[in-house]
Structures are given as C-alpha cells and as structure tokens.
C-alpha cells in the first residue's frame, strides 16, 4: 500500500481507528509491563522519562517504535510496550466517579442490543467509561446523547472520550441537567432506540423514558443494590407500558495458568451492579402481568432509605479531586494536539524551504 492509499484509508476509517494502528506517537497512552507482570500506563511526551525505583525509561525510546516493542531502562529493566485495550484504558483513566466495569459494559452492549447507527441516550455519565463503549457500538453514523447533572463529571468524561478517540466523537452529544427534564425537552417522542440509565433512582424516569423510547426500544438499567432493583422492577410493572423486566448480574473469575498449576485465581471481579432490561410496548398496549406476583410489593420507609448514597456506601468526592481529574483527563488531549500542531508546523517549514 502506498502513502496515498494509506492516507485515503485513514480519512474513511471509523473515528479513532487510525490512532490504534502504526508506530507509537507522541501524546498517546502506552501500557508498560515489566518482567514481573506489573503494568503502568504513561503518556508519551518527548524529552521526558518514566521513573521508578529501578531507574528510568526515556519516552523517546518508544516514540516511533512499533507496538509490541521491548525497551530497556537505564539499568537494564525490560518493559513490554503496547497500546492499552479498552478494558485497560477505562480502569486507568482519570475518574471522578466509579466507572462501569468492562464486564458490565459488554453486557449492556450485547443485552441492550446496541447496534451501529442506533440512537441512544444515557444518564449518569460519571467518568465516561460506558460512553466510550456505547460510541464504539453506535459508530460514526449513530447517535449518543449523554446527560450528566454535574459539570465536573462532564468535563472528566469529555476528556477521557477525546483521549481514546483522538478528538471529539462525531456521534456524541453531552448535556447538563436532570435526565427526566432534559431528555423530553431535547429529543422527539419515539425517536430513541435505546435508553441506558446508571443512576440511584431510575424509577423516577419512567415517563421520560416512555416518551422518547420508540415502540420495541430497549431500556437497560444499571443499579447497585437489591432495593433499587426491586423498586425499579415494580415501578415498571405498575406503569404498564413496558414488557416484564429481566435482571441479572455478571461475575468474572480469572484462571492462573502456569505449567500444570492451572486453577482459579484467588481474587475475582464479583458483584459490581445489577443489570435490568425491559422493552417499550406500542402506545395503547398494556403489558402482560407475570403469572406469579409477589405477595408484597409496597415499600416501607426503611426500604426507601436504603438506596440513598450514604446507605449504599457511595463516597462523596471532593470538588478538589474532581477538578484535578478533569485537568488530568484534558491534559492528554492537549498534549497530543500540541504535538500534532508542532509536526504540522515543521512539515510546512520544510515545504517552504
């Protein structure tokens, strides 16, 4: 393939794909794995070094090298260099809130049937981990509208999304405000294919979801506690505009592989949250009641109090930490842009000469 063919491929490739190929470039994130399997992610910056208690590694040794290279520090420590996978990136990126784990994001994409070209809305953006996966699923010609109540979280999410995609994604829009108010004001009734909610009280959004979701559309909820799960399910049943909800959780257990010592790992990613999915029925249709109903569906006050942030163990995040995370998320994007501008300037000067 000649240079012109390569350039044409880059212009027609899905957004962000070009940044996943080729040699390492200044401004991008690289995952270093040492001889003991410990991993660290760095942002390549010309003229700087990665320092550890076992010497330092100059970033310039990596810039321009192919992915999968082996490099040595000044004291002979070897490192394997690869671009972080999506699962690695979301667990190491700057954050202001807990991220949706890759195992849950994968379930949301598959069980929510998020397809290329779909029109999706989400609420509870947090640090942008799920937004990144949703954008990959809908593609450049799809549509993702994310709603977030806090400006700080929106800034962190925007920085993380632009870092992994190399700039603003053409399918993404992010708005500030309460989901149940903003989504009906900004989206046409019946115009949305999928709704994904990651929030404390999704049952408060029943009318908003029923308004914007197209008949047959999927609504998937991510909640942390049994109480939230129960109340959301009962609210959906009582509403009558949706199918009988299904709920589950996923657990991932790794395995130790060394010769004949093949066994489960001592640690695993167990409960992180519950997922629940339901679908919008056609207007005027009432959902079928389950064959067996629970004998008690009312909630006492102590049940309602169980889903407050303090009760579910959610730690408050200081404004200082959020501002720092937002700066970290945006700094990588700015570093990469500065490097690209510098390279363009050098190229222009060479052509002028």
UniProtKB/TrEMBL annotation:
The keyword Methyltransferase applies. Residues 1-28, 311-353 are annotated as: Disordered. PROSITE patterns: SAM_TRM61. This is SAM-dependent methyltransferase. Residues 13-25 have a biased composition (Low complexity). Residues 337-353 have a biased composition (Basic and acidic residues). GO terms for biological process: tRNA methylation. Keywords: Methyltransferase, S-adenosyl-L-methionine, Transferase, tRNA processing. GO terms for molecular function: tRNA (adenine(58)-N1)-methyltransferase activity. CDD domains: AdoMet_MTases.
